[in-house]
Structure formats: C-alpha cells, structure tokens
Amino acid sequence: MTRQGLIDEGTMTINSTSDRALLTADNSSSNPERNEHALRCPECGEATGLHIDGVVVENAAGQRLQVDAEGEDDGARLNIRLENDEPHDGRRHMFSLTGSCEHCRGNFSLGFKQHKGMTYFSKTSNA
Ligand SMILES: [Zn+2]
To answer: What SS3 string covers 37-56?
Structure first.
C-alpha cells in the first residue's frame, strides 16, 4: 500500500492486528497539495475542535521536558518545565504530542518511542 493510497482513504496509521485506524484525516478539510491533512480526534473522530497543545520529550535517563502552549495571537504563551522522573522503558528517547478535543472532552497523548532501532507509536487517552 502506498502512502498516497493511505491518505486518499483518510487513514494515516492502522493497527494491523485489529485493523482499527489509530489516526485518520478528514479529506474534505485537508489540503493535500500543501501536504496538510486535517487530523480527526483519535477518540470521537471529529475533525473540528481538536487541539494539539503540548509536547513531552523524555530520555532514557529520566530527563523530561514538557512544553505546553496556551492562548492565541498576542496572548499566546509557552510554559516550559524540565524535571527528572522515572525513566521510560526504552533505550533512547520518546516524544509525545498531547492534546484535547472540544467534542468528547477527551485528553490524549500520541507517543513516538525510540528503542533498539525501532520507532514505536502509542496512543493513550482518558476520554
Ligand atoms: Zn473527540
């Protein structure tokens, strides 16, 4: 299956064990000519009201950097926190995008973990 084929179907990532889509795009709101695809909420599927507002970077030694973005226009602010925490179970680093949805009121995290030459994707939520 080609990358273009996945995008045409509106599916960006599939769990091949369950055939459940992990991330989907709303094609009617996307701009494929600009390589911009309107992400749907990973919980309820709505394409509007989805917010990715933060990123967490963790390394295998337990250092953790969290950046949370809030506000709009001139009122936009970044809150940055660096701390030490329990290390994750990978050998390298992990990046997570955190967000929320106005429709289902869910909070979620999309993670990318590096471990032994592999990149693992995970999705957690508390919807
Ligand atoms: Zn939602």
So the answer is: EEECCCCCCCCCCEEEEEEE
Residues, CB-to-ion distance under 5 Å, ligand 1: 41, 43-44, 101, 103-104
Residue-range domain boundaries for the chain = 1-40, 51-127
- Answer for the pair 23, 39: CB distance below 8 angstroms, yes or no: yes
How far, in Å, from the CA of 106 to the mean position of ligand 1?
Answer: 6
> Token match 């950046």: residue?
67
Q: What is the value of pTM for the model shown?
A: 0.79
Which secondary-structure segment (H or E) carries 27?
Answer: strand 20-31
37 in Cβ contact with 30 (< 8 Å): yes
Helix, strand, coil content of the chain in percent (nearest 5): 10, 55, 35
What is the helix (H) or strand (E) element at residue 73, kind and residue range?
none
Is the model's pLDDT at 81 over the cut of 90? yes
